[in-house]
Amino acid sequence: MRILLIEDEPLLGEAVATHLKKTHAVDWMQTLDDGAQAIETVSYDLMLLDLNLPDGHGLNFLRSIRKSGRPLPVIVITARDQIRDRIDGLNAGADDYVVKPFDLDELSARIFAVQRRASALPNPRQRIGAIEVDQAARKVWRDGEELQLTAREWALLDSFMHRLGTIVSKSKLEEVLYGFGSEIESNAVEVYVSRLRKKLGSNSIRTLRGLGYRMDR
Amino acid sequence: MRILLIEDEPLLGEAVATHLKKTHAVDWMQTLDDGAQAIETVSYDLMLLDLNLPDGHGLNFLRSIRKSGRPLPVIVITARDQIRDRIDGLNAGADDYVVKPFDLDELSARIFAVQRRASALPNPRQRIGAIEVDQAARKVWRDGEELQLTAREWALLDSFMHRLGTIVSKSKLEEVLYGFGSEIESNAVEVYVSRLRKKLGSNSIRTLRGLGYRMDR
DNA sequence: CCGCTCCATTCAGCTTCGTGTCAGTTTGGG
DNA sequence: CCCAAACTGACACGAAGCTGAATGGAGCGG
């Protein structure tokens, strides 16, 4: 099971990461930015999110994740005295929380519990015109018929789904496909948009010349 | 719910028994002999089995229980350093394991999970296309004909059944087969998927390239 | 204690399929 | 009408996955 830990205190982060690595695959990020990038590129089973971070408050991040419809279970980490945070955290869509300082075994137990709960729920589906998407199962239907998408095609669709109604630049999509900083010199994005259109229907993705692409809801 | 605890360390046994007695009926035995006698006379819903016991190793006991076809859910208790035991435990038919020292709440969570799995329905047969599965009895039918699955095959099928409709990653399946952290470098998962398909029918398990596998309901 | 059987594990050779690239074509803005 | 941007069909390559076969070990019956 793959866990994303977002925690900026080195000592705590180190302790948690070490403990969890006995039983899970753990990626440890120290900023929201890195965390955001991580969940764009890797599929995690669970996220541990500290709320007080150098580059902003975790609650907005959490809200944006929930808004995007991603079914990622989240456990929030808060300080003892910030009860307000806990309540807001649960309102914002956290599945559980732990209070600093916490016992590492307790953390394991909560992870286990959340995980069990999460896998019992049916997957949420998102609908866009004739397209229906189940992000957890990576399933896509068009007019009720299931489509087979490849990894790259899915990555693109995913990007569009998270930015419905806004323009996604070509360079952003390149980044999605090939990671940051890859100086690719080809029309790969165009090729994949083309392939996606063929599967989703040609009116699913709009071209905005010189700017990028846009998917409307 | 009636639980049989087989554990020879007085302190641990006492702690576990006391904790569980808040929510369950617990019988605590300190030897395999007593344990064996207990399951002959009383009908238990679950057994907690320590492997290192004064009168022998618990694995043989577990094996004999499984061989007898008794559908008793078993959670194995092992020491931190005996990974080998864990793997063997799952091979021998354990439903789950906890590692000493463990958190009592984690134990409760695991008991709950195993129990839910074991007794999901009064007649817990689940149907998936031409496949029918009785998880409690560990039996599988295809078109009404019973199939014989090996321990590994069953472990895989079990994983799929608990995540119907969602993707199960290869690493997750490796974890199921070999426990976490086994630096395995082989295509064992592929081999077992292949064998399962041969038995269940080739359209039972979908491959998602680069992601894992998925079984649909 | 010895063979027998079944299962787990590994390996190698094969197949399938996703990917990236290119070339020729189409589109649309200026 | 022209040119740049975008589109798309085709193709070659390599990675990922599949599966039959060989090996060795554990359990079991004789």
Count of the domains of chain A:
2
* Strands of chain A, count: 14
Largest sheet properties of chain A = 5 strands, parallel
Number of helices of chain A: 8
Q: SSE order of chain A, as H and E?
A: EHEHEEEHEHEHEEEEHEHHEE
End-to-end Cα distance of chain A: 33 Å
- Which oligomeric state applies? homodimer
Q: CATH superfamily assignment of the largest domain in chain A?
A: Response regulator
The helix-and-strand class of chain A reads alpha/beta
Report the largest inter-chain contact. Answer: A-B, 25 and 24 residues
Do you know the CATH topology of the largest domain in chain A?
Rossmann fold
Question: What proportion of the residues of chain A is helical, as a percent range?
Answer: 40-55%
Rg measurement of chain A, Å: 19 Å
Mean pLDDT of chain A: 84
Low-confidence stretches of chain A: none
DSSP strand (E) fraction of chain A? 25-35%
Strand order of the largest sheet of chain A: 2-1-3-6-7
Q: Give the name of the CATH architecture of the largest domain in chain A.
A: 3-Layer(aba) Sandwich
Shape of chain A: globular
CATH C-level class of the largest domain in chain A is Alpha Beta
Tell me what you see in this structure.
The structure is a homodimer of 217-residue chains. Chain A is globular and about 55 Å long. Chain A has helices at 10-21, 32-41, 58-67, 83-92, 104-120, 151-161, 170-178, 188-200, and strands spanning 2-6, 25-29, 46-50, 52-53, 56-57, 74-79, 96-100, 126-128, 131-134, 139-142, 145-147, 167-169, 205-208, 212-215. Chain A is built from 8 helices and 14 strands. Helix content of chain A is 42%, strand content 25%. With 217 residues, chain A is α/β, with parallel strands linked by helices. The first copy, chain A, has 2 domains: 2-120, Rossmann fold (3-Layer(aba) Sandwich), CATH 3.40.50.2300; 126-215, Winged helix-like DNA-binding domain superfamily/Winged helix DNA-binding domain (Arc Repressor Mutant, subunit A, Orthogonal Bundle), CATH 1.10.10. In chain A, α3 packs parallel to α4 and α6 (151-161) crosses α8 (188-200). The mean pLDDT of chain A is 84. Chains A and B meet through α5 of A and α5 and α7 of B.
